[in-house]
Design a protein that fits this description.
Length: about 240
């Protein structure tokens, strides 16, 4: 038994061009010449950035907080004051050192005695430091005493009285030399001596009474001797 004939296929159903011509040639594959650009290089991918919390911690470790920076840069005022050496320990210049050594080597000035020495008399007392009025008072008292002593030294009783007057009036002259007599008392003594130098014994005795009533606390140590000297000198 014979096979059936194959079905005919039209050119349009085969996909060829119209007219039944041969099929078009396929496009050749792309060729890669040596001059083509090299393939891209693949570098290792950068590590991913840490999360925000890790970045903050690393920033804190890298730079100290403001308080720590301030502490490292400058100490607080109390530490600065402790670190600074005291001013009196600073080195002195040679002139200052010399002045300081001279000041240390100078002996302290002697203290002025509070009262006259026990053995002071009119013949031993100094009057170089007296004021002008104090020097006149001392000179007047010494002159009256010398005049009385020259006339009465032969009498033992009167001589002893005059020696006692010399001690007490020597204390007065010592106080005048040491500026320990008040201005009011010194003024009264000037009036008394001025009257005595003129022979006005009444005025001299009157001034003596004023000193007794007005300045007894200051003048009690020599007023009795001064009264006796005025009485003795007025009787010569």
């Amino acid at each position: 038994m014979d096979a059936p004939p194959a079905p005919s296929v039209s050119p349009r159903s085969r996909g060829g061009p119209a007219g039944g011509g041969p099929p078009p040639a396929a496009a050749p594959p792309p060729s890669y010449s040596p001059a083509a650009a090299p393939p891209p290089s693949y570098s290792p991918a950068p590590s991913a950035a840490p999360p925000p919390m890790q970045q903050q911690q690393s920033f804190q470790q890298a730079s100290p907080p403001p308080q720590q920076q301030f502490q490292h840069q400058a100490p607080p005022p109390m530490q600065q004051q402790q670190q600074q050496p005291p001013q009196h320990h600073q080195a002195l210049s040679p002139p200052q050192q010399q002045q300081q050594q001279q000041h240390q080597q100078q002996p302290p000035s002697p203290r002025r005695p509070a009262g006259p020495p026990a053995d002071v008399t009119l013949s031993t007392v100094q009057s170089s430091n007296c004021s002008p009025s104090g020097a006149q008072i001392s000179q007047c008292v010494k002159k009256m005493h010398d005049e009385c002593f020259q006339q009465l030294a032969s009498n033992p009783v009167r001589k002893k009285e005059l020696e006692d007057c010399s001690k007490r009036l020597g204390q007065l002259c010592w106080r005048l030399n040491e500026k320990q007599v008040s201005a009011a008392v010194e003024e009264k003594l000037m009036k008394l001596c001025d009257a005595a130098s003129r022979g006005d014994w009444a005025t001299a005795n009157s001034v003596h009474v004023e000193m007794t009533t007005q300045h007894w606390d200051e003048c009690s140590g020599f007023l009795t001797a001064l009264k006796r000297l005025l009485k003795t000198r007025s009787a010569l």
